[in-house]
Amino acid sequence: MTTTGGFQPVFCTIVPPHVLDRLARNEDPALSGPARRSLEHDAYQRTKRRLTTVIGAAIAAPPAGAAADKPHRTVYDAGHTQDLPGTKVREEGSEPGSDATVNRAYAGLGATFELYLKVYGRHSIDDGGMPLDATVHFGENYDNAFWNGEQMVFGDGDNEIFLDFTIPVDVIGHELTHGVTQHTANLEYYGQSGALNESVSDVFGSLIKQYTLGQTAAEADWLIGAGLLAPRVTGTALRSMKAPGTAYDDDVLGKDPQPAKMEDYVRTGRDNGGVHINSGIPNHAFYLAATALGGYAWEKAGQIWYDVLTGGELKDDALFADFATLTVKAARERYGAGDELQAVQKAWEQVGVRTL
Ligand SMILES: [Zn+2]
User: Fold this and answer.
1) Which of 66, 180, 334, 353 has CB atoms 3.0–4.6 Å from 62's, for a disulfide?
2) 160's torsion region: left (phi>0), alpha (psi -120 to 50) or beta?
3) 13 — alpha (psi -120 to 50), left (phi > 0) or beta?
4) Among this protein's residues, is 284 annotated catalytic?
C-alpha cells in the first residue's frame, strides 16, 4: 500500500528526550552543553517540520526511468551546520570516499533497502522506489539522528556520551522504518500507537542488523544502538529487546526506563506519552515470538509483523491489544494453526497483552 499524501508530520529521533533532558542538567558543561544544544536543534527541527508540512512539502519522487529494485542513495554533508540537505558527497554507484561516516550512512541505507526488497518485496520506503537521502555531520556535537519525514539526518555525537550516530546500522534501519510506517499504517506518534510506531522501528532496525550479519534469532544481541555509547558510559546500547530496562545504568545517563510487561506500563506526558519507554513491551513480545520460532527472525516473525504494518487493518490509533490481535490473525492467515500461531499468542501472553 502506498500513501502519497495526508500523513501526519513526522519527526522521530533515536535518542529520546528524557535522556537528553537528564544530560542537559549535568553539572559538567562538556556533557550538558551538547545535550542542551541537541534539544534545541530537535525543537527547532520539530517546529520547522510542522510548518513545512502545513505549507505542503513536495514528496520526493523517484527519478524518471529509475529501476525500482535498486536503491537511489544520496549522502550529503552538513559540514557541522544545521542546513539541510548540505553538500552532496556521495551518490548511487560511486566509490567509497575517505569519510567513514559517509560510507557507513551509504551502506546503512543500502542494507535497509535490501532487507525490505529481498525479504518483503517492498521497493524502498514508499514501495514506489523513493530515493534515500541522508545528511551526515549535522550540527556541532549533535547528540541524535532523525528522520524528518523526507530524509535521514545524523549527528556526530559529543564523544563524551554518544559517538557517531552512523555506527549502529540498526539506528539507520530504525529511522528509515519510521518512513515505512508513515507510508503504511501511519501510527499516531502518541501513547500506545506511538509506542507501537517506535517498536516497529526497533523491530525492523534490529532485523536489518541481523540480516546484514546473517544472524539467527538465537545469535542476535537484540540491542538497539550497540556501539553508540562512549566508553565512559556504563551501558551497552539505547534499548534492549531481549531484556528491556537493562540497556544502561549509568551515573550520568540514569537507568534504562523501559518496561517489558504491561503491568509496568509507564504513564507519562513526556516523550509523547512515553513512546520510547513503553515500546519495550511490544519489542519484547517480538523478541519472544522470534526466539520461540528460531531460525532467522526476519523470515516468520518479521513477515507476520510486516503483514500487520502493511495489511491495511491496523488503525492509526491502535492500542497494543489491537496490534497483538492482528499479529495472531496474520500468523494464522500465513502459516495456519501451527507453531507460528502458538509462538505469537504466547509471546503477547508473556508480556501481559491480551489478544482477542
Ligand atoms: Zn524512533
Assistant:
1) 66
2) alpha
3) beta
4) no
**What is the grid cell recorded at 160?**
563524551
Strand partners, 21: none
Q: Which three cell numbers stand for residue 201?
A: 522501528
Residues 160 and 243: beta-carbon distance below 8 Å: no
**Would you identify the CATH topology of the domain 4-182?**
Elastase; domain 1 (3.10.170)
Neighbouring residues of 31: CB distance < 8 A, sequence distance ≥ 6: 23, 158, 160, 161, 252
pTM score of the predicted model = 0.92
pLDDT along the chain (356 residues), means of 10: 43 87 92 90 72 43 60 98 96 96 98 98 95 96 92 96 97 95 96 98 98 98 97 97 98 96 96 96 98 98 98 98 98 97 98 94
Q: What are the helix (H) ranges across 160-237?
A: 169-182, 191-213
The length of the chain is 356
- The amino acid present at 111, given as its one-letter code, is A
Catalytic residue at 175? Answer: yes
For residue 121, give every residue at least 6 positions away whose Cβ sits within 8 Å of its Cβ, in sequence order, or none. none
Cell digits of residue 271: 516523550
Query: What's the gap in Å between 339 CA and the centre of ligand 1?
Result: 31
d(CA 166, CA 172): 7
d(CA 335, CA 293): 12
Point out which residues pair with 135 in neighbouring strands: 76, 153
Burial of 159 (0-12, 13-18, 19+ CB in 10 A): middle
Spacing, Cα 224 to ligand 1 middle (Å):
11
Write down the domain spans for the chain.
4-182, 191-350
**Looking at the domain that runs over 191-350, which CATH code has it been given?**
1.10.390.10
